[in-house]
Amino acid sequence: MNASKPIGVFDSGIGGLTVVRALLCRLPQENIVYFGGHGSRSLRTEIAASRPRVRRRGYGVPSLKNVKMIVVACNTVSAVALDVVQKRAKIPVVGVIIPGAKSAAAASKKKRIGVIGTIGTISSNAYANAIRQIDESISVFSRPCPLFVPLVEEGWVATRRQK
Questions:
Q1: What does pTM read for this prediction?
Q2: What's the CATH architecture for 7-96?
């Protein structure tokens, strides 16, 4: 892997910025290229606060020759098409389902986990399957929330920042 190339983070909206934040905390020496969605005001504001180590590129397939690996921060793409992206890429590609499932399973004290997401993410059962592979005694309750993402991206829902 070319150490001088940045890590590419791909998402269709603003949610992937939580992944960018985690990467910057865990890998402070790395540069990040964020391949984001439609570019709402909130997205532009968040990325501006992260500069100079995060550059934004328009929505679309990341330019594979310009990054050393891709993190697919989009839950829906991770749930339904990660294997396709991994097969086509000549660099490492990781998704967010397995890490998210591991984190949820570790945090659950009562072995009951609620999952909300897009219709595609929920109908894939990716989180439920991943959580049950980690611990089959965990009960998973999944519900699609198709309007949640647009509400957050347009600033209609207050979000709590992680520190």
A1: 0.75
A2: 3-Layer(aba) Sandwich (3.40)
